[in-house]
Design brief:
A hairpin with a 5-residue loop joins strand 10 (about 165-185) and strand 11 (about 190). The protein is built from two helices and 13 strands. It has two domains: about 15-65, no CATH class; about 70-205, Immunoglobulins (Immunoglobulin-like, Sandwich), CATH 2.60.40.10. The radius of gyration is 27 Å and the shape is rod-shaped. It is about 5% helix and about 40% strand. The chain is mainly beta and about 220 residues long. The strands form three sheets. Strands 4, 6, 7, 8, 10, 11, 12 and 13 form an eight-stranded mixed sheet that branches.
């Protein structure tokens, strides 16, 4: 066998994975077999010379190649869902030293386990974001994370913060998305790297409470 053996619009997941974790300097594939033969009449037999992660340096007889670099770029172009912070007591209003419960919901866009489909060189590429971590920023200098906890409401929620003083504080969450991809409905494979998405701030109003003795007469 050799480069004269054509398979049409063939896609090999193993070829993508073989170079997936390389840097640009190491070549990001897809992994390509290299052959050589003596130019004569009739042509000599093809001889295998190895495998390279630099298909663009071998020649363009095979036509455009779907590469991991293209898939990574498509991943970062995904319109990711931003994390939205809400708190309890309701209305994003709480009291000094009162345990305040936080949770994260996801706004419009592609959030964890949702699938964004795109076309690359005629291949159908599905990209599925994965929640790697969340970091909560409470607006008073304190934070929690990275964690995978989406928080919750009283009394079962586990993302809880107490403010030491009154005021308005802009709380927000930062999400780190990993991702997976598949081509033409094949198996899912990991995408190297992550995408960091910062949510819009939610203003938390912290008030003071005071006790007053009242004459019952």
């Amino acid at each position: 066998s050799g480069p004269d053996d054509r398979l049409g619009d063939f896609y090999c997941e193993a070829a993508i994975r073989a170079c997936a974790n390389n840097t640009e300097d190491q070549g990001q594939g897809p992994a390509t077999r290299v052959y050589r033969r003596v130019v004569e009449t009739p042509p000599g037999a093809w001889e295998p010379r190895g495998v390279t992660c630099y298909p663009n340096l071998v020649g363009d007889d095979a036509g455009p190649q779907l590469t991991m670099a293209m898939i990574i770029e498509a991943f970062h172009d995904t319109p990711f869902a931003k994390p939205e912070v809400s708190s309890q007591p309701e209305g994003n209003t709480t009291l000094v030293t009162l345990p305040t419960y936080y949770r994260v919901d996801f706004a419009d866009g592609y959030g964890p386990d949702q699938v964004d489909t795109t076309d690359l060189l005629g291949f159908t590429v599905d990209i599925r974001p994965r929640l790697d971590s969340i970091t909560y920023h409470y607006g008073d200098g304190a934070s929690l994370g990275p964690t995978t906890d989406l928080g919750g409401v009283y009394p079962s929620g586990s993302v809880v913060h107490e403010y030491a003083q009154s005021g308005d504080f802009d709380a927000h969450a930062v999400v780190s998305y990993g991702g997976e991809f598949r081509v033409n409905g094949g198996d899912w494979n990991d995408i190297p790297g992550t995408a960091t998405i910062t949510g819009n701030p939610t203003t938390i109003t912290v008030m003071e409470s005071s006790a007053r003795l009242v004459n019952g007469d």
